[in-house]
Amino acid sequence: MAQSALPLPAARLGRAVRTAGAPTSVSGVVLLLPDGKPDSHRRPSPLSYALQLPLARTLARAGQEDGLAAHVVRYRCRGWNATDAHLAADAEWAVDEVVRRYGDVPVCLAGHGMGGRAALRAGGHPAVNSVLAMAPWLPEAGPDGPDGPDGPEPVKHLLGRQVLLVHGTNDARTDPELSFRLAERAKKTNRDTCRFEVHSDGHGLRQHRAEVMALATDFVRGSLFGRAYARPVADALAAPPPLGLRMPLAAGFGKSLRG
User: Fold this and answer.
1) Which of helix, strand or coil describes residue 109?
2) What is the C-alpha R_g of the chain?
3) Alpha-carbon span 95 to 30, nearest angstrom
4) HSE on the CB side for 189, CA within 13 Å?
5) pLDDT digits over 95-114, tens only?
6) Cα(245)–Cα(210) distance, integer angstroms
7) Range list of β-strands (E), 106-218
8) Among 194, 217, 228, 248, which is most buried by a count of CB atoms within 10 Å?
9) Is the pLDDT of residue 256 over 90?
10) How far is 54 from 151, CA to CA, in rounded Å?
């Protein structure tokens, strides 16, 4: 008799990233969702978790006056795993855990790669008010639908959320055109959707890291706490497609905000 597979370990929230001097009360939470694999039941890579910490620290520092707490989600396993959608399920669990710990506070899901797909898929949770998907992994076109063998990725559940996608034009791991295609469909349902293109950057968005960090910070503070968006973000949200979905991320975006 074949031995049954061991159950997956439980998902967890990493320790809250907050800065010294931040208010003791939490008024908003950003959940960082690391990258993953299309198919794998292996434990998540510690590196994928560690790669999200610099953004978590940047966001926590920028949002300390607002009472922002940042957590990096520790998945049960590193794979999406077809219809099991483990990473999206773990993201939804993490939002439930935020509600349990902090009460009725707004939540932003911010994911990279496969974590970007998880953020988009779990964005319909009632506590989520915004989604940031960076270089999101999305399924290739398949015979039974425009975005994969199970049909297109859902977007209608994003209605009422602020949604920002960011993608490097030279990404060799996740196709930028697929994220444009999803943003185009999402915009028809939810006008509060925009997408920025980081010209010449790759999957890790490292070449223009300062600009990407500044864009993420501006979006998270604006969506969670009602701060005024920087002009490029406000313009991208207001612009009709395709203009607001192919908005170039200008060099020096971060410097202009600090100034």
Assistant:
1) strand
2) 17
3) 10
4) 14
5) 999 999 999 999 999 999 99
6) 21
7) 107-112, 128-134, 162-168, 193-198
8) 194
9) no
10) 35
Q: Taking a C-beta distance cutoff of 8 angstroms, is the pair 194, 236 a contact?
A: yes
Mean pLDDT of 118-127: 98
Specify burial of residue 191 (Cβ count, 10 A radius: 0-12, 13-18, 19+): middle
Token output for 233: 């973000």
For strand 68-74 and strand 12-13, is the pairing parallel, antiparallel, or unpaired? antiparallel
Q: Residue 125 has which token pair? A: 């949770």
Within a 10 A sphere around the Cβ of 12, how many other Cβ atoms?
Answer: 16
Torsion angle of the four alpha carbons 36, 190, 124, 174, in this order, in degrees rounded to the nearest 10 = -10
Calculate helix-pair angle for 231-238, 209-225, nearest 10 degrees.
Answer: 70
Using the predicted structure, report yes or no on whether residue 231 has a pLDDT greater than 60: yes
Give residue-wise pLDDT tens across range 19-78: 777 777 999 999 999 999 999 999 988 999 999 999 999 999 999 999 999 999 999 999
Q: What is the 3-state secondary structure (H, E, C) of 40-91?
A: CCCCCCHHHHHCCHHHHHHHHHHCHHHCEEEEEEECCCCECCHHHCHHHHHH
Say if residue 154 is preceded by a cis peptide, omega within 30 of 0: no
